[in-house]
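Subgroup meeting minutes
Present: P.N., E.W., G.H.
Scribe: E.W.

1. P.N. recapped why we're keeping a running log of single-chain structure predictions: easier to compare across weeks, and new members can see raw inputs and outputs side by side.
2. G.H. added today's entry (281 aa).
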Amino acid sequence: MPSVEDFMTKEVFVVKPSDTLARAKNLMLSKKIGRVVVVEDDKVVGILTREDVARAIISSKPSIKSRPIDQLLVAHFMRKEILTVQRTASISEAAKLMLEKKIGGLPVTSGKKLVGIITTHDITKYVAQLSLENLLVKDCMCKEVATVSPFHSIAHVAELLFSTPTHRVIVLDARKRPIGIITPSNLTFVKFSTTKPVSSKRSLSRGGEATHERISYVAIATAEDIMTTPLIIVHEDDNVKLATSIMVKKDIGALPVLNGEGSVSGIFSKKEVLEIASKKG
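Output recorded in log:
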């Protein structure tokens, strides 16, 4: 039976509770990772994910909103529940724990020593090499799909993003065709301009007819500014082996699923991958 040690990532990136969110964000971005382990005095004291950073960035709390992230400390946003898995544990055990705790990664220990980390990406690699040609995407996809238009506000997108099981929002055009996807990484890492031209008309005299166009530049950020495009999709009748292979090759966490009419009917994410892995072994 495959163990955690067989698929874990051995290089673990760590931060201290006293480090800033800016440092943690830059580390995640430069290393292309979704989480860092928080260590103090050689002891694991928490974990910080890109979702945690995203929540801080979009927070409406005055004490957070008014401060740049290079003044916010990891200690105040990290997840303090210490969850680890032994290197000898099975992939199934790790997957079950991730599903139960709704997390995407676990520090791996040998005794009390930190020796690696296992993430949903590592478990997707495991599932991709299983013989699953007869298991179709439509049989295990999540049918609860959050969608927005390209012009929905970032605040609305964020609200949907953190309330949907897959933590993904699909962007649909006016014809309801999928054109993009938004993930926590988009909120955390993507840089975009928030200034857009807005046209209005005004009159040159008080009470006169509004005949002169005026262009104002205002701060408005919408879904289209941060979405990932072009979109990588799968179809309902594709098998899970194909879907997981795409996820590994493209290093993505979810695939919109299209039905025969080309409409979005579901989403296949690493949550569904964990559910498959939890039943193996």
